[in-house]
Structures are given as C-alpha cells and as structure tokens.
8-oxo-dGTP diphosphatase
Amino acid sequence: MLHVTCAIIVNNNKVLICQRSATMKLPLKWEFPGGKIEPGESKEDCLRREIREELGIDIAVGEPLTPVEHHYPTFTICLYPFVCVLESMELQVTEHAQAIWEEAAALLSYDWAEADVPIVNEYLSKLING
Ligand SMILES: Nc1nc2c([nH]c(=O)n2[C@@H]2O[C@H](COP(=O)(O)OP(=O)(O)OP(=O)(O)O)[C@@H](O)[C@H]2O)c(=O)[nH]1
C-alpha cells in the first residue's frame, strides 16, 4: 500500500487544486498536491517537501482530515489529507498539467481521483457545518 499525503491549501477563500499530467498515473484527474511519504519522514515534513518540489511554495500544515484508504485497479493507497495555509506566493507548476485556485462551491464539478472524493466532501461539510 502507498502512503500518500495531500494538502488542501487555502488562500483568500480559495483552494489550490491540481490536474495530473497526461503521462502520470490517473492521467488528467484532479487531486490535492502531495506525494508519497519517505521512510522515516513525518506526514507534515512529507507534505512541506512535496509542495515545495511540485509547486515551489511554502505552507503551514494545519488540521488533519480523515485518512482515505482506496483500492484502484492496480494499486492501493492510504491518503492523508491536511488543511494548510499558503505562506508564500509565486506558484511554479513543475509536474502537473495545471494548478488553479478554485472556490469551494465549485470543487464538486471536477473529475477527481477517486480517493479524493471523500476528502472533498469532508472539507465542504466542515466549511458548511463548522
Ligand atoms: N499527490 C496526490 N496523489 C494522489 C492523490 N489522490 C490519489 O489517488 N493519489 C495517488 O497517489 C499516488 C502517489 O502520489 P505521487 O504524486 O507521489 O505519485 P506519482 O504518480 O507522481 O509517482 P509515480 O507515478 O512514480 O507513482 C499517485 O499514484 C496518485 O495517483 C492526491 O490527492 N494527491
């Protein structure tokens, strides 16, 4: 099983969402940026490292949401989501097809990686219910 972190990065009431490139696994699906946890690395350190590598920005890692275990046809992941805050601007998108800031209300209209769907729903219900 792959252990993967992902960041719901919030800034000015918008969330950063990323589209996987055509050559990655799950091509062109939308996801929250992040990646695989390396041996001995904390989830928070993994997330800060991956976000710096993929997007060239620094984040403050905040509240964890519920981890999602998902079985894709060829691999299984456990995805650990964290709500994060942007600490530096200047996005440099190095791996994804695109990264965009989107209103929470529009998140459900994207074609998400399947493992991310429960995370989007939990994030939205927290926004509505506090
Ligand atoms: N970063 C990230 N990965 C996700 C999310 N949802 C999801 O199913 N994944 C899956 O988790 C796996 C690990 O993420 P990764 O970004 O380190 O892997 P990768 O595809 O770039 O590298 P790889 O092709 O060498 O496996 C990917 O296969 C990806 O499909 C998500 O929200 N964020």
Summary: The beta strands are 2-11, 14-19, 30-31, 34-36, 59-64, 68-71, 76-86, 98-103. The first strand starts at residue 2 and ends at 11.
